[in-house]
Amino acid sequence: MCKKVVVIGLLAVGALYAYKKTDLGIYLRSWCNRNCPNLELSSRTDKIEDVKREIDGLDEKLRGLLGPIADKQERAEQLEKEINTARAKFEQRRDSLRELIQGVEAGSESILFEGKQLTLAAAKARRAREEAAVRQLKAHEEELAALQKILHADLAQLDNIALLKQQLRTHIAKLEAQEQTLQVKQAPAPAGVNQDWVRNIQRKLDRIEQAQKKEGRKLALEERYLQPASETSTAQPGDRSLLKDLVGPQPAQPKVAGGN
Which pLDDT score, from 0 to 100, does residue 147 have? Predict the structure, then answer.
């Protein structure tokens, strides 16, 4: 039993070596392509479908990014709202805050702040609270600035992934169209029709198509470089007066009644 396993293994290794390292593999592949074209077509079609599924996987990646980005946008909107509200309040109380600061720095025993008389100790405590509010405002502004940079990078990443997906799908669509053309060309001839005759007709059609393309390119070049210039239009692109366009047409002169 062991000898049979060893012999089978050696035969398999020898066959694999012969397929990869000698002309036998080339001959076998050529024979399969000639006699079993559907196998190669099926393989290419399966590969295209596999790639399409991989490209569709980009949608899952996009969905995974959308949630966190939406959370960051919500936080940015909240911060922006809080910053605008805080700045508006500071702006409304600018004069009172200035008087509070001046009174504390001057050491006044009684300081007027927002219609109330504060002792020096109460004014110092109030100033400390106002300073803390300013520090919080600055922290929110820094957080918002950093968050906006992150959001800009995240949205750019989304745009790049979406563009990549579109480009790949365009490429796939092109390959599918080419594959359909190949399948039509390699389709077996109907019963009673010689396969060599079909291939000969297809080669003739391909040559006609190439000749048409060549003639079309030639005509396009002739139209571009040999077409005579039109004699009906003498105005040059630079003749248009930009100043005239700017000032507009000359206004009509009023008619002056005759003296007679």
Answer: 95
Is the overall model pTM greater than 0.85, yes or no? no
DSSP 141-209: HHHHHHHHHHHHHHHHHHHHHHHHHHHHHHHHHHHHHHHHHHHHHTSPPPTTS-HHHHHHHHHHHHHHH
- Which residues are registered as beta bridge partners of 82? none
C-alpha 168/C-alpha 69 separation (Å) is 24
- Pairwise CA distance, residues 71 & 151, whole Å: 10
Give the integer Cα–Cα distance in Å for 205 and 198: 11
The pair of structure tokens assigned to 236 is 């040059």
Distance in angstroms (rounded) separating the CA atoms of residues 96 and 82? 21
Instruction: Evaluate whether 111 touches 103 at the Cβ level (below 8 Å).
Output: yes
The predicted structure's pLDDT at residue 74:
95
Tell me which fold the domain 11-185+198-207 belongs to: Helix Hairpins (1.10.287)
**pLDDT tens figures, 90-149:** 888 888 888 889 889 999 888 888 888 999 999 999 999 989 999 999 999 999 999 999
**CB 168 within 8 Å of CB 55:** yes
Res 81: pLDDT: 95
For residue 116, which phi and psi values (nearest 5 degrees)? -125, 145
Token readout for 110 is 């009684």
* Boundaries of every domain in the chain: 11-185+198-207
